[in-house]
Amino acid sequence: MDISTETLTERVDRLIQARKLPLEWGSPQLSVTPISIAVQQLAAETAALEDALREIALEVERLSDQG
Fold this sequence. Notes:
By secondary structure, the protein is mainly alpha-helical. It has 2 helices and no strands. It has one domain (8-66).
């Protein structure tokens, strides 16, 4: 999707969902997931949140420059 037609919410949701796994083996929320895999998945989710936060900050800057 072209970034100019996506809302900020859609862009942030896309960034967050890109690295989320369904609740199955390998998911950090399950106690049967090995710690090394859980840490790797949590790191990926944290990176996705960082990307989403960066996207929000860029949008706020863009809007403040327009005002």
